[in-house]
Design brief:
Length: about 240
């Protein structure tokens, strides 16, 4: 677990022991008023500040930061930030001084710019998504762990056969990346799942009530067969 704090001019980065709460200093980030941090699926840490309103990439091992660009709004007060493993996107529960309200924003990891997606009820101090990996069709258990030198740890990768690809592509692919902390190397395992189909189609018709067409109705098609689960096994080394 990582944490950052600030005195308004410097924001040091820490690790936090979840079992004891003890914090260990990693180093200064050089960021004034770093208000929140998020780590994506590759292990890269991001953050932004409420003094210069800039976005940053942060090195987890040293705390060193690199400016990406402006977040594009006047951020102040409480903020939240989190990575969504299902979409591989970083979202912000922001507070915009210019509009005087909370905003849900999408964070661009390349430019640092953010886009408004909707409004939020005031200030939100923290923001997070459920854990997972694989973009909704694959998950790993356990997602992390500590292995003794020379030891091994079984890891179960589960493919969800009920997943419906948004692009109507019956073969979905991705990479499972094993990172180490401290960084002593990285291993990548390719994942691929072919969904038995086709099960795509077009629904045509009119929803009526008492013989009168009804507008604005949402029709949801479902299938009742049990999802097929595929299991494979790997090992941390």
């Amino acid at each position: 677990m990582y944490a950052a704090c600030t005195d308004g001019s410097e924001s040091p980065l820490y690790t936090v022991d979840p079992s004891t709460g003890a914090a260990t200093l990693i180093g200064p980030t050089g960021i004034p008023a770093l208000i929140d941090i998020a780590i994506d699926g590759t292990g890269q840490m991001y953050g932004y500040d409420i003094v210069n309103d800039n976005a940053y990439m942060i090195d987890k091992t040293t705390g060193t930061s690199t400016v990406i660009g402006s977040i594009g709004f006047d951020a102040s007060y409480a903020q939240g930030m989190g990575w969504d493993p299902a979409s591989d996107a970083i979202y912000m529960a922001a507070y915009n001084v210019s509009t005087g309200g909370g905003e849900l924003r999408l964070f661009d990891k390349v430019t640092g710019n953010t886009a408004v997606l909707g409004s939020l009820p005031g200030e939100i101090d923290a923001f997070a998504f459920p854990g997972g990996s694989g973009g909704g069709w694959a998950s790993i258990e356990p997602p992390s762990g500590v292995i003794a030198p020379g030891g091994s740890q079984p890891v179960i990768i589960t493919f969800d056969g009920s997943y419906v690809p948004p692009q109507k592509d019956l073969t979905v692919t991705g990479n499972l990346v094993f990172n180490s902390d401290p960084n002593v190397g990285q291993a990548t395992v390719a994942l691929s799942m072919t969904i038995q189909g086709p099960f795509f189609g077009i629904l045509n018709g009119t929803v009526t009530h008492g013989g009168t067409p009804v507008e604005g109705v949402t029709v949801t098609a479902t299938r009742e067969e049990s999802p097929v689960l595929y299991l494979c096994y790997g090992y941390w080394r």
